[in-house]
Amino acid sequence: MTEVKSDGATRRSVIAVTTTGLVVGMAFLAELLWLWGVTHPAPEDDSPALALFALPLFVPCAFLLALALTVALVLPSLWCARRVGARTGREDAWWWPPLLGAAVSAGPVALTGLAALPAGAVAAPEVYLVWWGLIAALVVPGTLLARLARRRAVEGRPLRAVRTVLGRGIGAVVVSFVAVLGGATVVAALLN
């Protein structure tokens, strides 16, 4: 891939596409957590339907968190992937961004573990592994979206991917939600 000038429009496009993709990823995670809460209720919990009332608060917080993840983890992963790819002669290889995204995702988890050492509050290794997996599950797709947005800028194609990512991503969240609830309703009707 030829080197592109790092102009403001390209950077803004990469950040916008990646942030939008991370919000869609968070929507999938929220859906999975909600479905887990529905299928595994604790005796003292209120109805999981109350989560719908928290949705207007969730969306702005999700965008802020996605923007922070983009700036702190995705963009450095993309930068590292371009540098490593240039050194190995495979700058256009698709596997560098997700590979380095997973590696960079381990950084905050390792720093948290090191910060807990002096206080003696170190968790079990499985806890750190789960957190690393959750962060990597958001960062790795973000690195691929950032790579795609950057490639489109290099090729001179329009950078209107935010609407596509948001529209298709949220559409996929809604379709999967309806499919799971519809399937659960059919199973419940057949069992009763």
Can you characterise this structure?
This protein has helices at residues 8-39, 55-88, 96-116, 125-154, 161-191. The longest helix has 34 residues, at 55-88. With 192 residues, the protein is mainly alpha-helical. The chain has five helices and no strands. Residues 1-5 have low confidence and may be disordered. The radius of gyration is 20 Å and the shape is globular. Helix 1 runs antiparallel to helix 4 (125-154) and helix 2 packs across helix 4.
What topology does this entry show?
Layout: H1 8-39, H2 55-88, H3 96-116, H4 125-154, H5 161-191
Helix pairs in contact: 1-2, 1-4, 1-5, 2-3, 2-4, 3-4
The span between the termini is 59 Å
User: Which percent range fits the helix content?
Assistant: over 70%
Low-confidence stretches: 1-5
pLDDT averaged over residues:
82
Largest sheet: none
The amount of beta strand, in percent, is under 5%
Gyration radius, rounded: 20 Å
Number of strands: 0
Sketch the topology as an H/E string, one letter per element. Answer: HHHHH
Shape: globular
Number of helical segments with 4 or more residues: 5
Query: Which secondary-structure class do the elements indicate?
Result: mainly alpha
